[in-house]
Each structure stands twice: as C-alpha cells, then as structure tokens.
Write a structure and sequence with these properties.
By secondary structure, the chain is an alpha+beta fold. 30% of the residues lie in helices and 12% in strands. Strands 2-3-5 form a three-stranded antiparallel sheet, with no helix packed on it. A two-stranded antiparallel sheet has the order 1-4. The longest helix has 28 residues. The chain is elongated and about 105 Å long. The chain starts with a helix and ends with a helix. The structure holds iron/sulfur cluster (2 copies). The site of one iron/sulfur cluster has 13 residues, from helix 3. One of its GO terms (cellular component) is membrane. One of its GO terms (molecular function) is 4 iron, 4 sulfur cluster binding.
C-alpha cells in the first residue's frame, strides 16, 4: 500500500514540475502589447521576411548573361537548360532560353559561384505554386526582367504567360558601327632624354 501511495506522489510531483516549467515560460514571454503573428504578417501581401542568406528561387539577369554554360556544368542534377546561338549582331552568344527545372533543383546554390559575370543568385522568393509540372520549369529568358531579377513575385501567372513567348524578352543591342570600325590609336614614340639628344 505504501508503495502505491509513493508512486501516486511521484506521478503528481513530476506532472506539477513539468507544468511549472511551462507556466514560467508563458509568463516570461507573455507581452500583452505584442501583436499576434497573423496581425503582423498577411500572406501573400505581407510575407514573413527571410534571412539574407536564404536560398529561394533564383534571381537571373538576362542582360548580363554571356551564355557560358558554367552554371549548367556545375549543377549536380543537370536542371539548368540553356538555349543559345551565336550573336548575329556582335560578339558572344545570344541567350534565347534559360530554363531551370524546379522539380529537380535542390537549391544547393552550386550554380551561383562559377558565374563569371555574377548574373545568377539565389533569391528570396519561396513560393511557386503551379498548375502543372510544366509550371515548375521556369524560363528566365521569357519572364519580365523585374520578375526574373527577383524584384517582383515569381507567380504562376507570369510563368504560364512566359510559356507562349517564343523570343527572349531582351536581346543585346548591336554594337555601334563606328566603335567596331574605329582603329586603335597609335602610341606616340617617347621623346629622347635631353642628354642623349646632345650626345648624338
Ligand atoms: S541550386 Fe543547385 S540544383 Fe538548383 S540549379 Fe543551382 S546547382 Fe542546380
Ligand atoms: S554562368 Fe552566368 S553567364 Fe554563364 S550561362 Fe550561367 S548565368 Fe549565364
């Protein structure tokens, strides 16, 4: 009988200790002036801020990409597809398509470091709901520049609209003819030092 009462006492004591810890934390963190989470953030208009090092959907700048393929080669799951052609109006390549398949991407960021012109970064967008699997394949060369660069939400409507575009949204303008034909200025010969000139 004594054993039974001891077990009941131990049980009640253990539960009370646990509840004391809980209630002490409740009073330590309770602030009547603090607004509730849902008052502070209202998705999607006012989403929770992410940390600066957060790895979300990419930010890509079509206007500086040189189509060198370094990012695609570095990707461990081969989910970057670049369509390019020789630039008909100048040097380098014209990037016609820059697709990332987000059904495969694992947000490892390995594509960012090798880029020689720093035109691809991990962004802070974390929501891309799609109507189909095809909606997860995003062609950054067909999205409006501000969406591709992460200044506007990567929304499913923009992605679906980009699917019917055949030409990239931006192409490098042709180089000015004068700049191409103008010969490099010749270097002037350095004047002889005065002492050397009198010796001669
Ligand atoms: S984040 Fe990683 S998996 Fe995704 S595209 Fe870049 S290298 Fe590939
Ligand atoms: S590494 Fe940079 S410049 Fe080269 S294709 Fe990728 S995004 Fe474009």
């Amino acid at each position: 009988m004594r054993e039974w009462f001891r077990n009941v006492y131990t049980t009640v004591e253990t539960v009370a200790k646990g509840m004391l810890v809980t209630i002490s934390y409740f009073f330590r963190t309770f602030d009547p002036k603090r607004r509730t989470f849902t008052e502070k953030f209202e998705y999607p208009e006012l989403p929770v801020a992410v940390s600066p090092r957060y790895r979300g959907f990419h930010r890509f700048d079509l206007t500086t990409c040189i189509g060198c393929d370094q990012c695609a080669k570095a990707c461990p799951v081969d989910c970057i597809y670049i369509h390019k052609e020789k630039n008909p109006t100048g040097k380098g390549f014209r990037v016609n398509g820059f697709m990332i398949d987000y059904t495969k991407c694992m947000f490892c960021s390995l594509c960012v470091d090798p880029c020689p012109v720093e035109c691809i970064f991990m962004g802070s967008n974390h929501d891309l709901s799609c109507y189909s699997r095809d909606g997860c394949v995003v062609d950054y060369a067909k999205l409006p520049l501000e969406i591709a660069w992460g200044q506007a939400t990567l929304n499913p409507t923009a992605v679906i609209e980009s699917k019917v575009i055949t030409e990239p949204v931006w192409v490098k303008p042709p180089e000015p003819v004068e700049a191409k034909k103008k010969p490099a200025p010749k270097k002037k010969a350095a004047p002889k030092p005065a002492a050397e000139a009198t010796e001669g």
